[in-house]
Amino acid sequence: MFGRSYAQGRLLLSRAAIGHSCISSWTTAAFAQKPVHSYMSPSTTLYLKGSIRTYSQSRYKQFREWQKQVRQEKQRLYDESEPEPESYPKNPNNHKILLMRPTLWAVVFTAGTFYLCSDIFVDRQEKLLKKARGLFDIIWSGTEPGSDEDRIWALMSDPAVRGLVGRSHAVSGESHAKMIRLIARLPGWVPFELKRTAVAFSDSWYQLSRGQRCIYTIVGINTVVFSMWQIPRLLPFMARHFLHDPRSGLSYTMLTSTFSHREVWHFLFNMVALVSFGAPVAETMGLEQFSAFYLSAGVASSLASQLLSPIQRAIILPSLGASGAVYGVVGATMMMFPHTKIALIFLPFFGFTITQAFPALLAYDLAGAVLGWSSFNHIAHLGGALYGMAYPIWGTDLWNRLVHTVRDRRQHKNHPTR
């Protein structure tokens, strides 16, 4: 016991002497403006080097242990969010990847989406044509115009609307006036300032074009799904219905996963790219055609990942994100507006044309698909990009033919031959 205390005392005294030597050396070096080690004794220098090495090794071990704990915690959370074993097998070697069922589902969904959107497009055109004919009849007959203006005036003359926005509030149409009346007729416990804020948002919304409204609607859907991912109680539901796993046997997740983001950076990057490139394409195609194009591009990118997953070198993992559909939008932008200038967020002073930047991005994804990189779903990116580049060449003509077919069927239905 006495020997241990004696040894500990000598160790403390030696550390105190070394500390005093370090302080003296640092003070002398500071006044002389020379390197510190030139005023240290060799024993002090060796001791400091050993202490720094030991401290660095211990901190590195702590860091590696922390990384291990983080990986274990992520794996635990992922295991807890997994669906049932029969729909999401943990051992992929004992489960075959289906190819025919998701292919048929994608074809049927794409065809149905384009037919429905074309029918909505024809219906809207017929309503506009009917309204134009009504205005022509009014001008030809010399009667006073009524209909739309009278309905808007009646909506804006509501006492609740006048109390909220006054008498001279400008509206862009009947739907805008209906929205303001709906806000004005909210219950009395809703604060007046909140109603005014809602009216300001509605004014901004109806000032947007139809293509911009479509883009921001898609962003809103993605925002809702992203918010659902942040609720721990919903993780099992989201993992089952908003993750696409080629081994699960579920086909509808090829669509739902394209509206799903779990990380903030992934969500923000895709939405910024969609708003930047989607508005011109939506304005050119129109609301209905762009809606069908965007949904089919997302499904096509997921289908490409599904079909090529058995031969890819990367580990088969569940995927999510709007990247495939966004790649389709960017590919369509490159084909429709090849001279578009773009700039990177972190390099705003360097400008590129889209025909220079997008092929380089595709080359990166091609390398990732060939070499088996698992950081992104590179095959889905390539599938969406190829679909987007091919659509302006062949898809627009098919859309026009489909619109003519729907219009002819409507005319035949309204005026059948006897």
How would you characterize the overall build of this protein?
- It is a multi-pass membrane protein.
- Keywords: Hydrolase, Membrane, Transmembrane, Transmembrane helix.
- This is Rhomboid-domain-containing protein.
- The chain has helices at residues 2-32, 42-80, 100-141, 148-156, 159-165, 174-184, 192-207, 210-229, 235-241, 253-256, 264-285, 287-308, 323-336, 354-371, 378-414; strands at 341-343, 351-353.
- By secondary structure, the chain is an all-alpha fold.
- Strands 1-2 form a two-stranded antiparallel ribbon.
- A hairpin with a 7-residue loop joins strand 1 (341-343) and strand 2 (351-353).
- Mean pLDDT is 78; it is low at 25-37 and 82-94.
Tell me which CATH architecture of the domain at 209-418 applies here. Answer: Up-down Bundle
Number of strands: 2
Report the total helices: 15
Note poorly predicted spans: 25-37, 82-94
Radius of gyration: 33 Å
Largest sheet: 2 strands, antiparallel
For this structure, what is the CATH homologous superfamily of the domain at 209-418? Rhomboid-like
Q: Which structural class is indicated by helix and strand composition?
A: mainly alpha
So what's the overall shape? globular
CATH topology of the domain at 209-418: Rhomboid-like fold
Oligomer: single chain
Helix content: over 70%
Distance between the termini: 118 Å
- Which strand-content bin applies to the residues? under 5%
Order of helices and strands: HHHHHHHHHHHHHEEHH
